[in-house]
């Protein structure tokens, strides 16, 4: 169940990152409120997942999901640049997430 909490926490991180962008420096009320609500929910689920997952694994996967997800939203919704180097960087983050998940499942 910890992995499910962690994945949802990462997805919520994408939402709060996007709403933070939409808040225009916290000058718009509802995007600002959305940012703080989803941020609190994301942190809460991350902390629950850390009850049984190692700190480094949980934090890296949470930030990775958020980073790659926010990157994808930036490209797909905000029409940000999708250069080959930016896509390679995102692919490397995804590779790191997969390796961390595999490493956490490997016998010690």
Automatic annotation (TrEMBL):
TM annotation in the entry: 27-46, 58-78, 84-103
User: SUPFAM superfamilies recorded for this chain?
Assistant: Multidrug resistance efflux transporter EmrE
Q: Which InterPro entries match?
A: EmrE-like, Small_drug/metabolite_transptr, Small_multidrug_res
Instruction: List, alphabetically, the Pfam families matched.
Output: Multi_Drug_Res (PF00893)
Q: List the keywords (alphabetical).
A: Cell membrane, Membrane, Transmembrane, Transmembrane helix, Transport
Q: Which family does it belong to?
A: Belongs to the drug/metabolite transporter (DMT) superfamily. Small multidrug resistance (SMR) (TC 2.A.7.1) family. Gdx/SugE subfamily.
- Please state what the protein is called: Guanidinium exporter
Q: Which organism is it from?
A: Aureimonas frigidaquae
Q: What is the lineage of its organism?
A: Bacteria, Pseudomonadati, Pseudomonadota, Alphaproteobacteria, Hyphomicrobiales
